[in-house]
Amino acid sequence: MTKYTAVKGMNDCLPPETRKWQALEQLARDTFASYGYSEIRTPIVEKTALFTRSVGETTSIVEKEMYSFVDQGDEALTLRPEGTAPVVRSYIESGMANQHPNAKLYYMGPMFRRERPQKGRYRQFHQIGVEIFGTAAPAADAEMIAMVWDLLDHQLHLPDLALEINSIGCAGCRPEFLRTLETYLASRAEKLCTDCQRRMKKNPMRVLDCKNEKCRELLQDAPSIHEFWCEGCQSHFTEVQAMLKLLHVPYIVNHRIVRGLDYYMRTAFEVITTRLGAQSAVVAGGRYDGLVRQLGGPDVPGVGFAIGEERLMLLLEDAGTLSVKEEQHVCFALLGEAARKALLPVIRELRHHGVSVQWDYEDRSLKAQMKHADKLGAKWVVIVGDEELANKVVQVKTLATGDQETMSIDKLVTYFSEKCS
Ligand code: ATP
Ligand code: MG
User: Fold this and answer.
1) C-beta 284 within 6 A of ligand 1
2) Domain with 389 in it: what CATH number?
3) Mutate to test the pocket of ligand 1, among 128, 271, 311 (most ligand atoms within 8 A of CB)
4) Which DSSP symbol is given to 213?
5) End residue of a domain, out of 319, 337, 358
6) Whether this model's pTM surpasses 0.85
7) What is the domain range of residue 342?
8) Separation of alpha carbons 213 and 244, rounded Å
9) Using N-to-C axis directions, what is the helix angle for 412-419 and 337-352, rounded to 10°?
């Protein structure tokens, strides 16, 4: 028989693990809502051209990582490798860009990149991301960074994280930097890795992002973007920092931060960890003022970030700081047809009151049902046999203590809705 396995680098998420993901996502939703963001949901498949145009032809994503295919109607489509381009596409297409350009949006969901799978790097992974459209103000960058720091540090209590920020310049000042960098790289070309030799001509800034140790060493005294900032970029970055200080967000300035996607300008930032080896970036973000126009919309500025959910989950696993509300189940041991008839309506009512209830479909013995309840992690078992029915009562057993009490059927809903609220 053929054994079916999941696609390499794409993982199932099973219970009870799913509860942790739900808890994390709920926390993110609540945090974003408290800062005035609304959720946007876009399709997982987009036209390939959207990504080649925005992410950039010479980025590793577009060069070699996209899951692209031609559908039955000869349309070139791609499983989204990232969330910003689809959000921008939707922001323009829906008319939001023209009618309500000031928007704070968040999204969460799977992304697809055909990379070499390893711990913290998968082919289907999940991102939680946010975007602010309609303001070029440094305050937007700073508050957004403060929000993600709030989530990771204040809410999730994660240790060993560092926030690194940079400004990668703008269309005004970056070309001069790139020219100088190109000259620098050209004189060392033969010592760079083959990837960098290729990137160096098409997209020299990306060489700074190379993970190869030898390249990193070679680049130690490469020209730095901050020597080239125009006045606008300089003052934008100064204001971002001033506001981060005001908000008590600790940060490190790292002029080597660039972004792997072409559409970024000015603020670039990452939250990195020392705990995941080469998969050190947990959050990456930055400003992309030209992107909306580049994708056919009005000239609206934007800034955003994306959290890698798997990496965050690995860190949370390690730190043990994600609090998942303990599930409180009640198991009903309904012994016989009459007990089912009498209690199934009560069970329904309990569920309407938000109580989690299970009962045995197989109608097994009391002993088997008790064992099953234990396995399910039930907190209580409600036992109902003929004798109880005759007296309109049930036995409520608390599994942890073994305590058992007789309770009138009428009291069940009040009793458990209070216990489980
Ligand atoms: P890296 O340098 O680790 O490849 P990146 O620069 O490609 O990251 P972005 O495109 O900026 O990452 O995506 C934002 C975040 O999404 C990353 O910081 C990371 O946490 C997460 N991420 C990116 N690619 C993957 C992947 N293949 N598997 C799991 N998480 C990922
Ligand atoms: Mg990458």
Assistant:
1) yes
2) 3.40.50.800
3) 311
4) H
5) 319
6) yes
7) 329-419
8) 32
9) 50
